Fold:
Amino acid sequence: MDIDDVDYDLPEGAIAIEPVEPRDSARFLVDRGDAAPDHHRVSDLPELLQPGDLLVVNDSRVIPARLRLHRHTGGAVEVLLVEPLEGTRRQWEALVRPGGKVRPGERLVTDGGLELVEMRGRRPGGDTFEVALCGDRDPLALLEAHGEMPLPPYLGRPQIDPERYQTVYARKPGSAAAPTAGLHLTHSVFERLAERGVEMARVELVVGLDTFRPLDEGDPLGHRIHSESYAVDPEVMERCRAARRVVAVGTTSVRALESAATGQLAGRTSLYIHRGYTWQVVDLMMTNFHLPRTTLLVMIEAFVGPRWKVLYRQALDSGYRFLSFGDAMLLDRCIQ
Structure:
């Protein structure tokens, strides 16, 4: 591959800066293979699926993982907690900005002077840090009190209800970013899917660092992807095998299901889905429109081949909104 295989021009005006209401009124580009795509709304999803299909969602819940802190000397430091370490919520892998000035052992404080984060040094690879939350208070309670929802940085600091950056089915707190394709789904859509004979299943994948990292120049196949924690219940895999079609909501659900297909139903996955991948589980994918030059777009290219560029061009020409709060698409896997 070449980096140009997953590149395109994304006009600033095509980036959604706020969500639409209601959630399921988002536009929905439906892939029809070699034919021109259809234009729908997400609320049409029940009519687009068939009895016996299984809709699989990632129910990981976003935590208020962005901490705006200060050094004791006064300098501002932003800490984004990416993932807990060693099964605790006291120590975290984190992105720190600016990271070059802070030192191991240094404590960062809130505007009110509370010591909240202790720096522990760089992680292997050098692009993240290990940090620890200070004190004995419950870590999630500390984050609820002092953290912000980790909205994408291109949005700035909009006045958005934090629950709008959660799916309606989110359960276990853990992710540093939302599985955004699922933000469009509503309880009404799920009720109509059930009436249609389309069942729902849940998996968990904690959204990790590659959500924030662009691909390097050159061959995307040489990219070193970070691992993420996931869990798929054995009963869910049985339902996938029995389903007419498996419809994964979002790239995170895709990664969890395809990782589980290797035989390990839970743990950490370093699965990098790219051109040439042999698909095991997923037949249809509901997903948002992604940034160029990302591993997410590499996965899309592996799923539908080079026609992703046709679909993205059609979406841009038709005024679709891109990225986290943007519109969505329903992709039908190409047969390779």
Q: What stands out?
A: Residues 3-62+161-332 form a domain with the QueA-like fold (CATH 3.40.1780.10). The longest strand covers residues 76-84. The two ends are 17 Å apart (CA to CA).
